[in-house]
Amino acid sequence: MNFDVKNKKEIIVVATSVVIFAVSYYLLKNYATKKGRLKHIAKKDLRKWEGKTETDPSISSDLVGYWKLIGKEFTNKQMQQASTHSAYPWSSVYIGHLVEKAGFKNFNPSPTHSGYVVEAKKNKNNKLKNSYWAYKPNELQKVEIGDILVKGRSGTNPNLDTINSGVLSHGDIVIDFGKIDGQNYAITQGGNVSNTVKQTKVPLTDNYRLLNPVHFAQLKYEK
To answer: Using alpha carbons only, what angle is made at residue 27 by residues 99 and 186, rounded to the nearest 5 degrees?
Structure first.
């Protein structure tokens, strides 16, 4: 009898230890690293935005929060007006929201995507560690979670060499990877895509470089 009780206690202790280890590993993987937090926050955002567009009242406070990152104050009511979003596209501040929440350092959210690209160019030139650096697609950097892929918008064809903060562009951030029929792809997420938050699949090579990129810049967080 005492032997059985002792065995049961040992089993309980072992099982509890296994559960604690599994939970700790999950939390470490998904929350303790910048990439893990980014992936978690982005997917949580995607669920929140599902079936909603920018003028939906249930999402207004989130949009107000995105804009506060650059010191721009809006009311919930303003966020429910299409004219506000036409004058103030929010896709760039959405990227700022994800980067800031994930804990990436030395990133100044900008009202334009080209604004943070210009900053990333300077970071690379100055070799500033723990910051985003801007690379040309033909530099063939391996794509990783946290990379920001930036392309032209509204017919623009920007060049990283001549980019300035006023150039129209759009950026999405890599939050995961997948494979379909043997083709690797990066899953990117961006805001103000068809007036909501959406994901896009970007084809990659076998060694996870951009395949036939339409982007003019790949921003990578360099430690």
So the answer is: 45
- The single-letter code of the amino acid at 135 is Y
Q: Residue 187: which residues within 8 A CB-CB, separation 6 or more?
A: 174, 175, 176, 177, 178, 199, 200, 201, 202
Partners of 220 in the β-ladder:
133
Q: How many domains does the chain have?
A: 2
Check whether 190 has a pLDDT greater than 70: yes
Query: Which structure tokens are listed for 76?
Result: 């919930």
Half-sphere exposure at residue 159, Cβ-oriented, CA atoms within 13 angstroms = 2
Written as six digits, the tokens of 111 are 């009202």
Boundaries of domain holding 208: 37-222
Report the C-alpha gap between 64 and 80 in whole angstroms. Answer: 11
Q: Rounded to two decimals, what is the model's pTM?
A: 0.86
Reference 119, options 102, 139, 138, 105; nearest CA is 105
**How far apart (Å, rounded) are the C-alpha atoms in residues 35 and 56?**
29
**27/120 same-domain check:** no
Q: Determine how many CB atoms are found less than 10 A away from the CB of residue 76.
A: 13
Helix or strand holding residue 19 (H, E) = helix 2-31
Partners of residue 186 on adjacent β-strands = 177, 202
Q: Which residue bears the tokens 């959406």?
A: 198
pLDDT tens-digit readout, 96-141: 999 999 999 999 999 999 999 999 999 999 999 999 999 998 898 9
Spatial separation of the C-alpha atoms in residues 213 and 61, rounded to whole Å: 35
Do 20 and 83 share a domain, yes or no?
A: no
Q: What is the pLDDT of residues 169-186, one digit of tens each?
A: 999 999 999 999 999 999
